[in-house]
Request: fold
Amino acid sequence: MAPRLNRAEQLADLAADPRFDAVVIGGGIAGAATFRDLALQGLRVALIERNDFASGASGALTRVAQGGFRYLERGDVKLVRKAVRDRNLFIGNAPHQVRPVRVVIPTESWLSGAIAAPLRFLKLIGGKTQPGAAVLLLGVKLYEFLSRRTTPANPSSPLPSGGVFGKAVLQRRYPGIATSFVGAAHEFEGLIAAPERIAIELIEDGLTASPRSVALNYVEAERVEAGRIVARDRKTDADRLDLEAPLAINAAGALVDRVHGLFGLDTRLVDGVAGTHLLLEAPDLARALGPDILFFEDAEPVKSKRRLCVTYAIGENVLLGATEVPVADPDSARTAPAEEAYLLSAINRLFPSLLVTDRQIVRRLNGVRPLLHSDADVNGRSRDHAIGEHQSASFGGPVISILGGKWTTFRTIAADATDAALHHLRRRRLVATDHVSIGGAQGLPADETGRALFIQEIAAKFGLRDSLVASLVVRYGARAARVAAYVAREPGVSHIRGISLGEQRFLTEEEMATGAEDILFRRTDLFLRTGLD
Reply:
């Protein structure tokens, strides 16, 4: 039987035995993945997060598992190879949460950049001119070649091949798109239904692999004394929690340097960059976008500042992003009016006949991602990660830090951090995570026929409608059977729009949701479809 992510039970386990092989500080995607990887190696691990799991940058992203197509132009082939491999593995390991999606890049030229783009790829020149469709097509083919070459044991990509659209196809496929666009390149990535759920499922997988491990949200590390990490339960605001371990892993994202300070370490290893996405109530725009994702040039008049924006439909709502603004204090990051104006200007340049205004903004998603510290311009900074290692005198052991990185490469980030920890613990790796299924993918039939039978069996067992069970399978994968048991016992309507009382109880008792906000924003994707603010 799978363990329950229940706060009371986790707190009791910690109180009974505060000694661990490792303590992970930070419950975003990197911390959750590292927690699982360490647990798979037979270690007893503690994970603490000062807010809810995946409540920071890990839940405020574009929600696309992608290899970084745009990084090819700057010649960052190493990062792209790493990212497309992790993207492909992610699609295979979590098919219940990620599906192929077409990414389209409209352009106003066919041949622009034919000379400059290869030189930028070779890092011989700089510049920001957008490549034309023909150049983008060459990039797509290189991108797909790298994707096929990433996994020698399985050289085929899980994604279809891309190509180009001419102007007539572009205008027909996206009604209302600006007539200045002469064509578009297109390729495929993975659309993530709910990245926050990936973190939850990774954590539960870790507890399954190592039942004596502990994972706690709303627990904040406050200081290190006498070789112990002293934390506070923010829900009670009174309980002191002591955690003992020979090493700590700092997975605090943009707060890495602040957490280092608790260990007596004075560092500047990461810089926080705030990114804003807008959720728009724009049914006409949603229909024009259809099922695809559009990456498009912004409306900046100064081409040296050109960036790519992204937009796609979620029901009748539209997600639009993203900005990148350096911030000194991640906790103070807020969406500025200038960022909203920038994004609205960009989408109105793309679809000038479907005017979008600030009155259609129903939610602002703001997250601060960590980039490796550098004096370079934000747009030109590396999105790769590094693993830092420091010895803390007050802690009496090493602090392994996760620095920077792309969301898509969470598996590799976790593997690198885990390997560093295993080296210090003088333990060997028992399990590689390349092909380990995530959460609800375990036991979920891969084909449509098998999935339909799976749904029918659960519905018959618990006396529920097939359509209801099908919606649970979409959200929870094979874990839908556990949720269905709660729904059957408590079928009433919850005060949280879109879920039943039974599902609400499951999320509270078995996924550590502490209130409506946790459920709406980090256990489901309801806020994206309803626009609740």
